[in-house]
Amino acid sequence: MDIVGLDLTMSDRTTSCDVQLSSLRCLGRLVRLKIGSGASIILRDDGEYFMPYLPNLRHVALTGFNFSSPVNLESLAQQKELISLELGDCKDIEPGIYGILGTLTKLKRLRLENGGDVNDSKLCEALLKIKGLEVLELMNFKIPKNLVDSFKELQHLIHVSIWPDNTFKSAVVNKNLFTAISNCKDLKYLCWGIIAEGEFTPKVLEMEDSDELTFEDLFHRLVALFPECRVEVKSVSRKLWKKFCSTRK
Fold first, then answer.
1. Known SUPFAM superfamilies for this protein (predicted)?
2. What's the chain's average pLDDT?
């Protein structure tokens, strides 16, 4: 079939469903693929749920998914010309997904949601292989210390949006993120997101080896680091997080 773009986004859906990705194999000319849902899209550990190889794919967004394992996405490692990739719930496909990401060396844009490990280096190792990356978004991610090493090498980054997961070792996560961001060079846009665990955004940010910061202090520090960059500090409550992500903000 001659379809080159496919958008199956169901942001208002509230019940889970499953999608047999193998049915996409008949769309050999597909260039853009976007599948998402406000509820969970379940991919089972079965061949019918594995992403097929589509030679012309350049842009892929799979969000709102419950992946059973990285096997669902192994064919992405063959998509050497991929330019843009968004993946939803990463927690069930770590660290295997990072081995796949490390093969996608032509990526310009990468967005990953709901994952990370402060003690794991696999994400950082993958990023070091994507030298031309321009846009990086890590949404609800635990930030490892060696992300700083990746940011030192990613000389083409111009857009960074990171929403750290502060449910575990928040002071360490925030310190790791601030240190990493400080090593970016030519940013044009920077967003530091806060996911509030209750109804209200906390008044201060915990940071290891530092006094507690108000979010106004954080904003001013970031502006001082990047005076030519558009800087934003945003907040959303945890209970609205899935809906927030489904709108790609």
1. RNI-like
2. 87
The burial class, CB within 10 Å (0-12 / 13-18 / 19+), for 219 is: middle
Q: How distant, in Å, are the alpha carbons of 5, 49, 82, 177, 181 from that of 161?
A: 26, 30, 21, 11, 10
pLDDT at 202: 81
Query: If you search the block for the tokens 């993946």, which residue do you land on?
Result: 87
Query: Would the pLDDT of 121 be above 60?
Result: yes
pLDDT for res 14: 56
What residue has token string 């857009």?
159
pLDDT at 191 over 70: yes
Six token digits for residue 56: 């012309």
Q: What share of the chain is helix, strand, coil (3-state, %, to 5)?
A: 30, 30, 45
**Token digits of residue 76:** 């992405």
